[in-house]
Structures are given as structure tokens and as C-alpha cells.
Amino acid sequence: LRHLLTLDGLPAALIRELLDRAEALLPHAHAGTGLRDRHAGRTACTLFFETSTRTRSSFQLAATRLGMDVLNFDVGTSSTKKGESALDTLKTLEAMGVDLFVIRHADNGAVAELAAGAAPGTRVINAGDGRAAHPTQGLLDMLTLRQRKGADFSRLTVLIAGDLLHSRVARSDLHALRALGCGEIRVCGPANLLPGDEVLHGCRVFRDFDQAIAGVDAAIMLRLQRERMEQGLVPSLEGYYRDFGLSPERLARAAPGALVMHPGPMNRGIEIDGGVADGPQSVILAQVANGLPVRMAVIDALMG
Ligand code: CP
Questions:
Q1: Do 179 and 222 fall into the same domain?
Q2: Interface ipTM above 0.90
Q3: Taking the CB of the first residue and of the last residue of the chain, which one, N or C, has fewer CB atoms within 10 A?
């Protein structure tokens, strides 16, 4: 593996290997000790053309835990504001000795284009491009599911609900769930926020959330991405919560012990009730915590 740009087409064995590697790195991820020699002398750069809290911070910590020098490039105060292109920015930083770029960009395919323009020895990880892919989120979601529900995904029914149209997390989760042989994948959302069959093939599509959540082992709730919506697409927030919000009553319809998941950031009271997000079935902060070993595992696999 030279770059990690998408989970689409990644063999199940490689996904499992990355999850196993993340499990092995868990003690080092959270203790913050023990692996400082592993990639010492190598340099990682987070190059984010879109905002982030979780992904950017956990990549910074992950690279630091592995002994790398970490350059947290601030696009907002950079010469991109003078018109320098993203590729010229990457090549400039590459000339300073950056070995690994972690890139987030608003445009679908932009990270793959930058990877194609990078020098042969440079590694690139996609930290989210447009609505296309967020592969490390997909991996950390699978790790969280596997830790709590076991490695046999064929026994699981997983629901992905909300604004799937704009969600790169949904696309990466779908690729991973299919690769790992998930028993049943359900999706539910407003008709105008569901993508087509090219994304949802093999999924059971529901318009009624009460039916969709009945008996599921996990519900992955998605943020309503209003910043990506054209005027007219944005639903009434009250109506959205009424029809597609995860309330305590709706959660009671899921299987006993069902997991509540959300990639964050959350809109409390819009796609998820605050008490459900903080409740005993929520693994939302466990997902965040798993971001660190997963990102260490991916960096470790790419850096060799
Ligand atoms: N889940 C996720 O990508 O969160 P951030 O936008 O905060 O990185």
C-alpha cells in the first residue's frame, strides 16, 4: 500500500490486517509511549483545506506517537491565499523533506489528484475529499463495531441514517461493511438526501426510520451537512428531527445493546437526541478514541 485514498476495492484481508495492527497499537496509542523510534527522522504534514477537529488532531498525535516530526500546515495563513495551487503547495513542502501528507479537501477526487502529482517516495492519506471518501473514519468505525460486536460481521444488521447524499463517511463505511461481509446493511433518510444505486447497491433502503431501526445491532447516525446543501434542499430542522432524528423512543426499537454511532461533529437535537448521544449505548467517544490507533496503523503500514 503506497497511499490510502479510499476503501473502495480494498480487499477484506487488508482491511482486517489494518484493524489488527490498530488493535496491537492500542496500548501505545493511549499511553503515548514506546514507539518513538519507529519512524523517527520522517516527517508528516497535515494539509487540510477544510476544517476538522477529530481527524486532524488524531493524525497529528498518531504521527507524533510514531516518532515522526509533524508539520501542522495552516492553509488559512499560507500562500494558497495568494493563489498558490494545492499541488504547488504540496511540492513546496515535499522539497522541505515531508515524507507523508494527510490531506483533506472539499472536492471529490482532489486528494487522489495530489497523490498522482507527488514524488514517487511520498505517501498520501486521504483525510476526506468532498463527499467521496473518508477511509480512516471507515476503518475506525469498523474497529469500534468489531470490538463490541465481534469479528463475524455476517451476524450484524447495521443501519446508516441521515444525510447519506453528502456523506463521505457513509461511502467509506459502506465499502468496509460490504468488504467485511456485513449480514444486512440498511440505509434511511429523506428521499432528497439519499444517493443513487451506484452508492447504495446491496442496501435495504427505508424511508420510515421506525421501521429502519427495528432490530438493528448498530445505528450510524450522520450529520445533516447543511454547508454542502443548495438552497431548497435544507429541510426544516424540527421536521427533520421528528422524521429522522434518533430519539430514545426510536433507539428502544433497535436490538438490545445496539450501538449508537456518529462520526462527529454532531448536531444535537437535529439528527440525534443529546441524551442518546451521551447515553449508555453510545460509542461515539470510543470511535474518537479509536481514531488514534487506526491512524497510527495506517501511517505505520504506509511508512513501512
Ligand atoms: N469525523 C470527522 O471527520 O470529524 P472532523 O471533521 O472533526 O475531522
A1: yes
A2: yes
A3: C
